Amino acid sequence: MRNRALHIAGNTLYYFALIVIALIFIFPFVWMVSSAFKPVDEIFRYPPVLISQNPSLEHFIEVFQVVPFARYMWNSFFVSTTVTLVALLLHAMAGYALARLRFPGRKVIFIGILSTLMIPFYTIMIPLVLLVKALGWIDTYWALIVPAIPHAFGIFWLRQFFLGVPRELEDAARIDGASRIGVFFHIALPLARPILAALAVFFFLANWDAFLWPLIATSSQKMRVVQVGIQSFAGEQGSAWNLIMAASTVAILPTLILFFSLQRFIVRSVKMSGLKG
């Protein structure tokens, strides 16, 4: 009986700690959304007020009137979606080749790809700017899309997954007359859907939240992405926190929709994440 009581007390303490940690992480998001509906004077009121007494959509309307925020949202959506789709295809092909094909230098190539994870972006930023400028891509979608496609993490994760796929499935398809490309598209890719969905969320969020490279690679207002657009509300005369909060609330909606749409695939990918060497 005493052990059962200790077990219940331990579980209660455990779940209480989880709830507290969850509230700590959720509170900034709740405060951002709440502040987006507050009048300016309520944002800086002390003691602070979580729920506005006079909520309004005025800040959301003003965000789209002050700057072409819809254009910023489109730029981010187009770049993030394009990078995600192209990266998933190319990374899946690379991961499959490294896992299934036998060719000289395969392990050396894989180690070389993994080693790029240790190189900070800041060390290649200037050479990348010079390369993009030489190609005439500055202030174009090419500059925002092409450098963001390669990522060693995606290739690594997909390679490890394909290593765990039973070869009997591929052998059966080859016996039935399927080509190597057919096996890849009809056997390997469908099996990798949970991993691809998790990587889709990862790639989309990484590019949607990108700030430094889009700030460097673009100069005109029409090519700004949403994160650079939000930064434009902070000027020398101070930050327009009411507009920043409203713009941030709008900007987070596509990521929430994507996450909840692919949530079940992400859970499946975690369950399947036992890696085979």
Automatic annotation (TrEMBL):
GO terms for cellular component: plasma membrane. GO terms for biological process: transmembrane transport. It is a multi-pass membrane protein. Keywords: Cell membrane, Membrane, Sugar transport, Transmembrane, Transmembrane helix, Transport. Its main location: membrane. Pfam families: BPD_transp_1. The chain crosses the membrane at residues 12-31, 77-99, 108-135, 141-162, 183-205, 240-262. It comes from the Bacteria. Residues 73-262 form the ABC transmembrane type-1 domain. It is found in: Cell membrane. Belongs to the binding-protein-dependent transport system permease family. This is Multiple sugar transport system permease protein. It comes from Candidatus Hakubella thermalkaliphila.
